[in-house]
Specification:
There is one protein chain. By secondary structure, the protein is α/β, with parallel strands linked by helices. It folds into two domains: about 120 residues, Rossmann fold; about 180 residues, Rossmann fold (3-Layer(aba) Sandwich), CATH 3.40.50. Helices cover about 35% and strands about 15% of the residues. The strands form two sheets. It has a seven-stranded parallel sheet, sandwiched between helices. The protein has a five-stranded parallel sheet with strand order 2-1-3-4-5. Helix 3 links the parallel strand 3 and strand 4. The two termini are about 30 Å apart. Glyoxylic acid binds next to loops.
Length: about 325
């Protein structure tokens, strides 16, 4: 049986080498992503699509090819795919959990540390030529060790972020729709609290929830005002979980002290009010972008795609 696969953006060689010779490939190698009409046209005659979070896979795209059997997203998040529509059409949807957990948690910590200790401001200052003598009063930041970390969303990544806090002797509070097992709470020394308590007590609030209708603007004016004026917000999950306009006011008017953001409401656009602020560290959605992890993500997406094409169960179907 024919196996025709569309890959919407080029993938590393290590992953591409997993694809056997009997698979016919169509790889989009352009700088810009495929537009919706291009995606629909290229999908015709394909049995599988390997796509990225910048590709919107809605019902119209899925309807382009009745023979489509699998959409393999090269990401853990899958809010770019209409999963219900895929199910109706018997198209399997897969994502890439686990392989990026630790790398993403590392980066959430990089943002937390950079915002707390003003690393980016220090970098700009050191390069600027303004640094003429050691200065006792220069760039005082916030301590991290011994403080309270609040983790909103206690899945794989949230827990990996919490585990790192043990090394900084932090108190860890978490909130999630589902409370973790007592063994997990013990191991991570994490305490389940309601969201308002977490926001009110945490020195650092880090977001690790998926983007769902109920998590959109979870952090808005009301919830930002619950945070301490000394608190720092970290978002390495999905941009629309934070109301960026409210965050701009919170950072500008001192409702909170700072933020570290890897994700934005309308990527790649960044709210213009964020750009001039020195108390926010901005990154271009790179939390899982280490060499090893990007290869692991691409390889898992390819293996998911091949499994379905071979009539086997996918390795990591979306829940
Ligand atoms: C990246 O944002 C991912 O969902 O893997």
């Amino acid at each position: 049986m024919a196996k025709n696969v569309l890959i919407s953006s080029s993938l590393p060689d290590t992953a591409m080498k997993l694809i056997p010779a009997d698979v016919t490939l169509d790889v989009h190698r352009g700088e810009r992503p495929l537009s919706k009409p291009e995606l629909i046209a290229r999908l015709r005659g394909k049995h599988a699509l390997v796509c990225q979070i910048i590709d919107t896979i809605d019902d119209e795209v899925l309807s382009a090819e009745p023979g489509l059997r699998v959409v393999a997203n090269v990401a853990v998040g899958f809010n770019n795919i209409d999963v219900a529509a895929a199910r109706r059409r018997s198209v399997v949807v897969t994502n890439t959990p686990d392989v990026l957990t630790e790398t993403t948690a590392d980066f959430a910590w990089a943002l937390l540390m950079a915002a707390a200790r003003r690393v980016v401001e220090g970098d700009h200052y050191a390069r600027s030529g303004q640094w003429t003598r050691w200065d006792f009063n220069l760039l005082w930041g916030n301590d991290v060790h011994g403080k309270t970390l609040g983790v909103l969303g206690f899945g794989r990544i949230g827990r990996a972020v919490a585990r790192r806090a043990l090394g900084f002797s932090m108190r860890v509070l978490y909130h999630d729709a589902v409370r973790a097992d007592a063994a997990v709470e013990r191991e991570l020394r994490a305490t389940f609290v309601d969201q308002a308590t977490l926001l009110g007590e945490a020195d650092f609030v880090t977001l690790h929830t998926p983007l769902l209708p109920e998590t959109r603007h979870l952090i808005d004016e009301r919830t930002l005002r619950l945070m301490k004026p000394s608190a720092i917000l970290v978002n390495a999950s999905r941009g629309p979980i934070v109301d960026e306009a409210a965050l701009v006011r919170a950072l500008g008017e001192g409702w909170i002290a700072g933020a570290g953001l890897d994700v934005f409401e309308e990527e790649p656009k960044i709210h213009p009010g964020l750009v001039p602020l020195t108390n926010v560290v901005l990154a271009p959605h790179i939390a899982s972008s280490s060499c090893d992890t990007r290869i692991a993500m691409a390889s898992l997406a390819i293996r998911n795609c091949l499994a379905v094409l071979e009539g086997k169960p996918p390795i990591t179907p979306v829940p």
